[in-house]
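Quarterly update from the structural biology core.
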Amino acid sequence: MPRGPREVGLTLLAALAASQAALVALNPLLPEVARDLDVSIATAGQLRTLSGLAAGLAALATGLVAGRVGLRGLLLAAVGLLAVGSAGSALAPSFAILASAQALVGAGIGISYSAALAATAEWSTAETRSRVLALTLLGPPIAWIVGMPLVGLLGEVDWRLAWALVPVSMAIAAAVLLVRLPATPPAAARARLRAVVASPGVARWLTGELLAFSGWAGALVYVGALLVESYRLSVAATGLALGLGALVYVPGNLLFRRWVDEHGRLMLVALALAAAAATLVLGAVRPSVWVSIGAFSALCFIAGGRTLAGSARALGLAPELRLGVTGVRAAAIQAGYFVGAAVGGAALAVGGGYGTLGVAFAALFVGAAVPHLVPLR
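Predicted structure, tokenized:
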């Protein structure tokens, strides 16, 4: 372990926070970006599709360089890509150049998620691993809670200023913390995708992760529209409700840490089924806005624990190919946005409204529990 568990956890937290900040910066700025660069909002929205594709491909490729570059080197390269891509986005004179910069951002996201998760195991002991992992996974919700308001405030002045200051400054801060750690050697072997997926238990675990992330990402995509259309909330009030959910995610992560080492498989089953129940309530039971906000907050709380349990499970599979395992998990996160958005859109298209949407996402969470019902031999 290059440093103490707290320093390692905070450093990896900063790397994931920078990654998440670069990911969500587009959300509140989308209309301004489209207007300034003279494209439609639908066209500008494809920037997220492009960065997600780049993130997935980069995550899958990280295992191939595991034998040549150490984890610290990978993380420094990732935050460098985040800084350059975010700065390029702020300076982009045209939509084509902005799209190219967002591809760099996507690559940085994919590499950082893969390397940071692998580093929680490589840079900790068996006794401190769950603590380091829980601290590391606080990075994305902290970026959402802190970064989104900052992006919104700066975006009122200029969307380019928001992109230049928030993701870039967070990437620089992560780089400063990373260089304080000693250089780490490369892995003993490359982690080829075929070998990773063929390792015992990986395919089952990956199936559960993809289904769970699809249900979770789909809920995040559509919950804003559910609140606006059901209760006529303003954009500001909807943002406040979503921020409350992000706050509840944090204690969910911290509370379940004490059980993840001994009861990880049971947690993966129980929390997936609990998430299914929460999405059913979110979609079908809407007597008041507070009930819906409560159901969404419960889903965020459960997601905090389930993400921790799924990540801990990843670190115990194929230790000699760990970076490859975390790479396919990062790719599954990106794929979850595509699958979740598509399933949600299809559910709304067939009729039944948000009740049908809740049933569809609940089915994804139930499917995520199935691979873990039988213990891995």
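Residues 11 and 177 are 6 Å apart (CA to CA).
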